[in-house]
Structure formats: structure tokens, C-alpha cells
Amino acid sequence: MKHKQELIAPAGDEDSLLAALRYGADAVYLGAKSFGMRASAVNFTTDAILSAVELAHRYGAKIYLTCNILPRGRELDELPEFIRFAAHAKVDALIIADIGVLALAKRIAPQLPCHVSTQFGVVNYLTANELYNLGASQAVLARELSLEEIAEIREKTPPELRLEAFVHGAMCLSVSGRCVLSNYMTDRDANRGECAQPCRWSYALMEEKRTGQYFSVFEEDGYSYILNAQDLCMIEHLDKLYGAGVDCFKIEGRAKSAYYVAVITGAYRKALDILAQNGPGFPLPDWLLQEVEKISHRTYSTGFYLKNNPPSQDRQRTYNRTWNLVATVDGYENGCILCTGRNRFSKGDILEAIAPHSPPVAFTVDDMFDEDGQTIITSRHPMRKIRIKSDLRLPAGAMLRREES
């Protein structure tokens, strides 16, 4: 293969950041308390960003800081200081969605790499080339592109401009994430990180003269989710994206849990490693394909990439969720897995242990103890310290999950 692809994982908090790094991300994108597109995430203080950069660089990974809201005039006075801080923190790039912000960043911190967000809506090589001329070193391509269109952009842009594409996660039916539905319905601006996701709600019709009478527009089980997009999953088609010229593979999910980040980052890391070692067309192991089913998700699709399989609305009312995280592993000592409880589990349960760069391993909980060494039958309380007797030597950062009946 020509070069190593970059796997970019999300982090909405410090737990997710550590999970992304442990499970194989080459870069992590995260947001500060301002100027980012995920107001629902915990996000990072200035001190936390400094620590995140130091930690990521120890792992040999990069930090990309979001500056991807569409700022209003009243915010522009604070923007130069934010850019200066990003340069001081030695983040590896700013992710930008506004041409004025891009120009300002290149004036204030010309050595700081700038990536253009998917919200720029880059759908052709003319736009990609002009953004490169303005100083962008990486472009997150519009989510509406096919593989053939990506290949044309790659052919007609300089190789120094790295092309980035989403490979997994939640999608929306707006064009490249530019939506005003949330603004109108809840007064929460989707282009400023405050989307209420009204596209996920159930809708009905009401005739003007029949107030209070609702007529269902149903697809299945009496519910209609005509704006509810399926989730993206390209784990079986990474070779096609690579062949089209994609350099960087991005996972969506800054509002997702550390468990989600660990599982999906680990799965795509392994898939990319298999691709790099064996070349296109090499089949992925079944356990790896099953991993993407073991997190909370909507029905999967391949988005717009494959023309013979166009995306559609998700007809399900709820997420698919068949596995739950029950504990995080702190280490191994004296024949016991040391862990912190997250959800209820009991003696006799069959759990799966997941660890970085390894297939999951199933085991039965035979004996477990509390912090005082007293035998317990059930772990009921989140954040409780537990010791599980086992020969399975799990590292810190591993996770334990259970399949729900």
C-alpha cells in the first residue's frame, strides 16, 4: 500500500480520549468549551487540552481541535485568542468550517495546520484546490459523495492535500450537517453545536380544519421516521475508500461514551491493519464484523459511497442495543481482575472482556469481592471497586460487557 492511513477517533471527554488512544487512534478530534460543534459533549477546558496534547503525543498520536461552529460577529473578538491558544497548546490542527476563520487562523498562526470541516461541503476538486490555496492541509469531504466522485477529487488535487472521509457513526439528512430544523423547532442552533435532533422524532399529519386529529404517516409499527437517517458503517469497504484516494478515516461520535469509542476505534484499527498487511479484498474475521454490532447504534448503511446501496431512513423507533458495559478494568493483581463497576452484573454471568488490539474473550464470573475482600454476589452500584477471581490477565483500559437477554 502507498502509505499508512490515518484513523481519527472522537473524544467528548477525558475518558473517551484515553479510550481512543489505547484502542489505536492515530489522531483524536475534540472540542474546547467554545467554538465547537458538540455542545452536548463535556468537552475540554484549556488545561485539559494542554494535558490531552501531551498525552496523545506520548502515544504517538495527534490532537485535532474543533473550531467548527459558524461564528457570529459578536464572537469574533474572542476568536484570535482561541487560535493563539491552539498554537500555544501545540495541537496538531484546527478543524474549521468558515472561510473567514480559516483566513484569520492562517494570519495569526501560519504554522498551525488547518483542516476544513465536512460542513464546508467539499464536493468537487475546484473547491478543494481553492481551500488548499488558502492554507488548508486536509479536507473532510462532504458526506454526500460517491467513491467515484472522491476519486475524481483525488486525481485533480495536489497530493499534499490530504483527503478525509467519515467511515462510521450517526448521520443526518441535511446536506453536510448544515441544518436549521432544530433552530425553528427548539431555538437551538445546529450550526453552533446545539442540535436537538428533531429529525429523530416521530411525526404525524394534521388537517387544517380538524384540530387535534392526527393522521399517521407510518412506515412500520405505526410510526414514521422519515427524517431519521441510518448510521454509517464502512468497516467492510475500507479498501474501496483507500482505492478512491482517502487518506484519513474518521469516526463520528464526540457525544458518545468511552465504551463506544473503544469498541469502534479498536474495530477499525484492526481492519485497517489487516488491509495494510494483506491488501484489498482480504476478508475480515467474523469477530471483528460483530464488534460494530455490540454498541448502541441505528440500522447501518454505507451512506452515499456505494451507488448500488443508497442510504434511507431508519424505520426503527429505538437504537439497537444488545450489549452493555458492566465494568472497566483497572489492572490485574493476585489472580484477580481489578475493575470499577458501571452496570449491574452477578456471579454466574458470562461476560466478554475487550482489550486493545485483541479479539474479545468470554468468561464466567465465578467469584468476586468488594474493596474489603468480602464475597459479593451482585455488583449493583456504579463506580464500586470490585475484584473478580480469574486467570484472565487484563490490562488497565480493558472493558467488561454482558449480552442482554
CATH homologous superfamily (4th level) name of the largest domain? Aldolase class I
The pLDDT mean sits at 89
Strand content: 15-25%
- The coarse silhouette is globular
Helix-strand category? alpha/beta
Class of the largest domain in CATH?
A: Alpha Beta
What is the straight-line distance between the termini?
Answer: 43 Å
In helices, the fraction of residues equals 10-25%
| CATH architecture classification name of the largest domain | Alpha-Beta Barrel
Question: Using only CA atoms, what is the Rg?
Answer: 22 Å
Q: How would you write the strand order of the largest sheet?
A: 1-2-3-4-5-6-7-11
Number of helices: 10
Largest sheet at a glance? Answer: 8 strands, parallel, barrel
Could you tell me the number of beta strands?
A: 22
Low-confidence stretches: none
Give the tally of structural domains. 2
